[in-house]
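Something for you to look into today, if you have time. Could you write out one complete protein record for me, on any chain you like? The space below this message is yours for that.
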Amino acid sequence: MSGLGNWRKTLFRLHGWMGLNLGLLLFVICLSGTVATLSYEIDGWINPDQQVEPRDAPIDWTAMHDTVAEAFPDGQNLGVYAPGSAYLSFQHAAAVSYVSLPTGETRKVYLDPYTGALQGSTSFFNTQRFFRTFHRRLFDGNRGIFLVTLMSLPMLLSALTGWLFYKGWLKQMVTLRWNRGPRLRWSDLHKGAGIWGLLFALIIALTGIFYFAELMVLANERYDILQPEPLPQVDKATLPDFGPHPELLPAGEYVAAAQAAFPDLTVHTVRMPHTPSDAVYIDGQAGNPLTRDRASKVHVHPFTGEVLGVQRSGDLGPAAFITDMADPLHFGYFAGFGGKVAWTVFGLVLSFSILSGTYLWMVRSRPRSHIKKEAQNADPSGWGPMPMLRGAIGAAALTLAYFVIVSIGTVTGIQDRAPERGPEIEAGTLQAGPFRVDMRCQAPCRGDEATVTARFRSAGMPNVRDISVVDTESTAIPMSGAARAPQAEISAAPGDSLRLRLTTHDDNVYTAGFAMPAAQESARSASPWPDTPSGVWWVIGAFVVVTAGSILVWLWMVMRAFQFERQRQIAKAQRAAQPSPPPGATLPPGAS
């Protein structure tokens, strides 16, 4: 029995050490993830443009793509997402398209999925983007994502040690001794929250550990082992057959072809090609909600409508299947909107469990009244708290120092979502063989760091193999990016003569000359903050207040536990130093 008792005591100490030393960071990560789970729904409630009245009508993919092309003629449509996809699971969700603009900004464009009508647009930055980025990487780049995923290990250990330590956990699920004093009350609340949220905590911890493993695989440039065999793209050898300006088909025709080849597929996403060799990408769900939409997808030829390849989630290998299963499990959207609500509730329970554990430790550390009296006039030198509390003070200080870095990175990260590039400056309209191209330069278009863009004005997709800018030293600088608007970074003074060079897939070369325009002042956004509905700032502000308040409460609890334990240790040392009473002597009341 003594061995079993020592084992339980070790589990208890390990559980307490992780809570006191790592709990503050875990709490902030869990709380932000809880809000991130329903963040798209929060945006929908804030912004009426993201809402549409659901009705029994087919989704008009062609109309939505045509609307985006008409509303943003210089933009690059990065994909259209219909209601029912991962983050559009609430009933009144509008369709959304991500559009990259010449200013460098990405806009979220909201559409009526049944008519294709434009409902509005916002900055890429909103509630969803803030909480997804904060939860995933704390606005601290690679260091942040490494730390967040690494914290899944102590979360797993904390959940398991708590469960193994407590006896009679089934009874603890329904035990709440509300009127038996703060120690028992908070002990029951902490145990109950931990047990009710145990399965959820294990799911979150295990998927987080998988994210950490993904990082390690990616760091070793072996991410391919987690991915399925890629679907075919357009055969580049056939591109000369389609001429200089092959036309894309209406988006609805691609969807019809995909569904004919994959009848069980409910289409959620359609992404048009960015270059002639890209296939049209279509994904969705086919009866397996435990995987991301991308697990079931179809590639379609952009110029013929031929199906190039089909991927079914059931055909994925174990590694690829787990990769596509991690997100739905981690954020709860495998069960639609109801699953996300349940995950939010359990996330709050888990966050409460972390905070209540620290408060419980403070209550446990509170000395009895006679011990407190003994300790009031005692000399505290040389006596400190137990080892777990010694580390907690240092861990709290390190965590606070890191939160200062996170705060600075968060402000900077939000400001980075504001448009930074100025308007495009015309450098000339060129006719290079069958291609008509507008050459533009991003303001301020300084000679040492100019961004030059070639915007094709011909109908159809420009079907070229290589495109480059030849500078004054006859150096060819490759242009890359979307086929209709490739870019290049060049160094050239205003007035320098440059050449645009195009090479088609049948090896024809076309050139046309233009001059660098004069530099202009950058027309950076008047505000350093991204354009987003005001409600987004209120939500972020409320999160900051709650987080800051929780941190202050946490520090107060740790300091109080430190003081209480110090009093306990002092009193214990004082009693040990007192001489033992002679045999048969009567002890005073309250003496131990």
